[in-house]
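Need a sequence for this fold. Nothing fancy.
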């Protein structure tokens, strides 16, 4: 299992690790952040596509 993948643990290890998370990582908070996260990812992907399109045209 890769580091940072809490979902792969079973109780009681999952429960112990979950309790250590700060309250900023609640499901409700993640849902509120989704529009901003989507915006950041979309901008990064648009920039990446533009960069490679430019390289293909030898800008």
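Here you go.
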């Amino acid at each position: 299992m890769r580091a940072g993948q809490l979902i792969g643990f079973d109780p009681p290890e999952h429960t112990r690790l979950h309790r250590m998370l700060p309250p900023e990582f609640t499901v409700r908070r993640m849902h509120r952040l989704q529009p901003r996260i989507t915006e950041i990812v979309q901008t990064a992907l648009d920039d990446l596509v533009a960069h490679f399109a430019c390289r293909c045209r030898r800008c």
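For context: The chain has two helices and no strands.
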